[in-house]
Amino acid sequence: MNNNFINKFDKQVSTFGPKEIMAAIFFVVLCVIIYFTFFHVDRTPYGYTEISEELASYLAGSDSSYSEDYNSGKMLVLYVARRDKEYKYPKQFQDALDVAIDDSEMGELYNFRELQILRNNILFEGEKGERIIKGEKELRKTCRSFCVVNPKKKALYFYFQPKERDAQYLQENLEKLEFWGAKLN
Question: Which of 13, 73, 107, 123 has a CA that sits 20 to 30 A from residue 39's CA?
Answer without folding.
Answer: 123
